[in-house]
Write a structure and sequence with these properties.
The chain is of the alpha/beta class. The chain has helices at 5-9, 19-22, 25-34, 36-42, 51-61, 69-72, 100-110, 112-117, 124-136, 140-158, 173-180, 220-236, 257-266, 273-277; strands spanning 79-84, 87-92, 167-172, 196-202, 207-214, 242-249, 270-271.
Amino acid sequence: MKRNFDEWLSKFKSSISTYDYYVDFEKIYEKANKYRVEINILNSLIGIQNIEEEFKRIVAKYPDTLEVIPLLLAVRSNEIFVKNQDGEFLFNFDRLTYDIEDYVVFMRNTGLFELLQHHIINNLYDYLLGVEVGLDSNGRKNRGGHLMENLVEDFIVSAGYEKDVNYFKEMYLTDIEEKWNVDLSAMSGDNTSTKRFDFVIKTDNQIYVIETNFYASNGSKLNETARSYKMLAEEANRVDGVTFIWFTDGIGWNNARRNLEETFNVLDTLYSIDDLEHGVLEKLQ
């Protein structure tokens, strides 16, 4: 029975975010604890009046404390570039590279001395945890990219497939060709593409190459994704024994429905989370 696109699209999810999607606290604690000793040393600067002299004394005795300074500014790099009316400067915090007075100027002009001296914060460790939470929010995009992969993999396992036995993660076209002696040149632009699939499932009769994604919001990327996967579906149809499956979902598709529908009309194996929940993987031959 022919599927109805509007009905299929209406079941798309608004979110698949898990608890650890928002903040990876384990990673944050690990980063903060790495510098716990240096942080505690720098804590002695909080509320002190002669902060510049005390800072110079600390850095001279404990130069490793410099490594913490970029983190206090939410900078991951050990090098910070600064440009002002006097010229351009590259500060290195990996080691005591310059005169300590240069680092004093940096601390003064960035406002870090003011932050510490006027007791605006009470504890650098707690402050650093907050900074790390903010920095970690940038990692949500990467974590979000894996949410759909993880969800699909759970269904693959539930359907009875075993990793590295009859299902595989992140396989390139060339790896598939070598492992099962199949010619995928029709899908690789005559061997000019280095396409990698999220999953590959191997049954007795078929090789299923699988892509997964989830879009909670709209954007230009969705239209391009739909067009490229439509082309990939057409290419896969020219290869005997190989079937392309695309698992996608997310209400972001509501604003890119036209291109998705075009792919839906030519790709019978375009599935959603609802299809997974109804056992589509258990029906593979």
